[in-house]
Amino acid sequence: MLRLLLATTNKGKAAEYRDLLRGLDLESLTLDQAGISQEAEENCNTFEGNARSKAEFYAALSGLLTLADDSGLEVDALGGEPGVRSSRYAGDNAGDAERVSFLLNRLRDIPQEKRQARFRCVIAIAQPGRTTQTAGGTCEGFIALEPKGDNGFGYDPLFYLPEYGKTIAELPPEVKNRISHRGRAAEKARILLAGLTST
User: Fold this and answer.
1) Is there a catalytic annotation at residue 70?
2) Domain limits for position 94
3) Distance (Å, whole) CA 194 – CA 73
């Protein structure tokens, strides 16, 4: 069985990936479980660039098949912000509540119908001696006027899906994992990983 390093320290994200990759012939472990404390730099201006650099950094460090992603929120009324700076938008040490509050403040004069946004995710799969592969996914919606829901993290409580009449954080995990940007990227990544486990 191949070991897969999930290159994240975010427990919520690691749990989602374990669900999304369930059934593959892989044993997954996180950076903490692998005893890795080094931090990869995220200084690219695209999600794909950051995902690739993280995956390749941790694959070289660990010698393991490695999955890394970069994901974030793009708000049309803010010219695509926060984008690749999503986790640092309210400052390097800000928590989820502070990021949500900061974004709402930036959008305080924008009416609901003009708050179009999307979550975007790019997954990179790296392995020493092999070419890095990537898979991407998006989820379209709007930024709500206030946060709602507890089934998520980050900006999930603000991301409103008109077709469900709920934020993504109000959806059951099985629905969220099917329709989210990460879920859609992971569906493609599953195919790439299945190819690696069968060789």
Assistant:
1) yes
2) 2-197
3) 29
